[in-house]
Design a protein that fits this description.
Helix content is about 25%, strand content about 40%. With about 140 residues, it is an alpha/beta fold. The chain is globular.
């Protein structure tokens, strides 16, 4: 399976990662049929320190869901950054992932965005499978 990002969404996710550096940013990805049309910024509400963790609160999830409905879109997944770490899911990411969503990670090294990857939770929740990220055709 592949996830398609518009150029605007790709740029927005990368910019959010740079803006939040050295902390993790997070947000929802809104779209239809595996095409992400909007990156919806969310506050990182973790109590564990935003340098190495992110958490989307239930209230913020509901806000993203409401916004998606109002624009005729669905929540396709979530994105976050890994400051000074690779764009690979951590054990924390695995422990907090939900099935059926895509999880985009952008690596931000020394304040510059580098690799952007996407992942989907395996059905047995044991690990992630990497999914292809494509440029969406308008």
């Amino acid at each position: 399976m592949a996830l398609a990002l518009t150029a605007t969404v790709d740029a927005a996710i990368r910019a959010h990662g740079r803006e939040a550096f050295p902390h993790e940013c997070c947000g929802a990805m809104l779209g239809k049929d595996s095409v992400v049309r909007e990156a919806f910024k969310l506050p990182n509400t973790t109590d564990e320190g935003p340098r190495r963790r992110f958490l989307v609160s239930a209230k913020d999830y509901l806000q993203a869901e409401k916004h998606a409905r109002s624009t005729g879109l669905d929540i396709l997944g979530f994105y976050h950054s890994h400051p000074d770490h690779p764009a690979r899911p951590s054990q924390y990411d695995l422990d907090h992932a939900w099935p059926s969503f895509s999880y985009v990670i952008v690596s931000v090294m020394a304040g510059a965005d580098t690799l952007l990857t996407s992942w989907r939770l395996k059905d047995d929740r044991s690990a992630f499978d990497e999914e292809t990220v494509e440029a969406a055709r308008r």
